[in-house]
Amino acid sequence: EAQVTQNPRYLITVTGKKLTVTCSQNMNHEYMSWYRQDPGLGLRQIYYSMNVEVTDKGDVPEGYKVSRKEKRNFPLILESPSPNQTSLYFCASRTRTGGFGELFFGEGSRLTVL
Amino acid sequence: DAKTTQPTSMDCAEGRAANLPCNHSTISGNEYVYWYRQIHSQGPQYIIHGLKNNETNEMASLIITEDRKSSTLILPHATLRDTAVYYCIVRLANTGNQFYFGTGTSLTVIP
Predict the structure, then answer these.
(1) Closest of A42, A48, A99, A38 to residue B88, by C-alpha
(2) For B20-32, what is each residue's pLDDT tens digit?
(3) B35 inside 8 A of chain A by CB
(4) Partner residue facing B41 (CB), from A33, A50, A88
(5) Is the pLDDT of residue A96 over 80?
(6) Residues of A in contact with B34 (CB under 8 A)
(7) Residue A40 touches partner B, C-beta closer than 8 Å
(8) How far is it, in rounded angstroms, from Cα A95 to Cα A114?
(9) Low-confidence residues of chain B, pLDDT below 70?
(10) Residue of chain B whose Cα is closest to the Cα of A95
(11) Which residue from B43, B44, B26 is spatially nearest to B86, judged by alpha carbons?
(12) Does B63 touch chain A (CB under 8 A)?
C-alpha cells in the first residue's frame, strides 16, 4: 500500500531535549516536505526536499533541521525544542515526474513541548 | 502560484449537495485547481483537480468557470463523514515547490 509513515504520532517532551520525527515514503517520490499546522494558521511549510541531498527552507524553518540522505526518508530534527514548536506536524511527498503532482500526506505527529 | 479565497465555514444538510466555492482571480493559464480535504486532524487527502473543463470522480465534481477565476467543489450527496476542512489550491502541476493550503472552508454536515 502506498503510504507516508511518520513516527512518533504523539510525543510530549521538555524544552531543550533534542528530538527527531521520522518520515518514510514507499512510492519512490523525489519530493518530500514538512508542514506544521496550528489553529487559525492553516498548514505552513517548514522544509522541503526536491531530491536526495537537496533540501531548502519553507516559510517557517527556524528551529528545525532536516536531512535527505535516502530517497525514502526525510527526518525532521528539533535540536532544542521550545514551547512555540508545540504543533501538529505533517510529512508529505509527491512525484516530480509524470502524474499531476498530487501530494500524499502522513497521518501527522502531534508534538507538545513543555 | 496563485492564491485562493474561500469562505471560512459552511453547513450542509445530510443527503443534500454541498457546494464549496473558491475564488482564484489571479490564476494563470497553465495552473491547475486542486481540492484537498482534512478530516479532523488527519493528513489532508486529495479529492480532485482540473485545468479548464469540469471534472468528476467518485468523490466529487469540480466546476470551473469559463474565465477560470473561480471554481466550485460539489459533493453530490453529503454524508456526516464529509464533515472536514476543504482546501482549494491553484498551482502548476509537477513543478515548483509550494502548495499554499491557506485555512480552507470548514464544512459541517448536519443530520
Answers:
(1) A42
(2) 999 999 888 888 8
(3) no
(4) A88
(5) no
(6) 102
(7) yes
(8) 37
(9) 1-2, 92-98
(10) B94
(11) B44
(12) no
**DSSP states of A24-87:** EESS--SEEEEEEEETTTEEEEEEEEEETTEEEE-S--TT-EE--SSSSB--EEESS--GGG-E
In the numeric block, the cell 500524499 is attached to: A104
Angle (CA) B58-A24-B96 rounded to 5° is 65
At A17, which amino acid appears? K
- Find, in chain B, the residue whose alpha carbon is nearest to that of A6: B43
Q: Which of A37, A101, A110 lies nearest to residue B93, judging by beta carbons?
A: A101
The answer to whether the beta carbons of residues B109 and B78 sit under 8 Å apart is yes
Distance separating alpha carbons of residues A112 and B3, to the nearest angstrom: 31
- Give the pairing of strands A42-51 and A54-57: antiparallel
Mind giving me the DSSP string for B9-24?
Answer: EEEEETTSPEEEEEE-
- Taking an 8 Å cut-off on Cβ atoms, the answer to whether A105 and B44 are in contact is yes
Task: Give per-residue pLDDT as tens, A36-91.
Answer: 999 888 889 999 998 999 999 998 999 999 999 999 999 999 999 999 999 999 99
Give the three cell numbers for residue A41. Answer: 494558521
CB B44 within 8 A of CB B35: no
B69 vs A: CB within 8 A:
no
Q: Please name the residue of chain A whose CA is at the shortest distance from the CA of residue B51.
A: A100
Q: Cβ–Cβ of B46/A103 closer than 8 Å?
A: yes
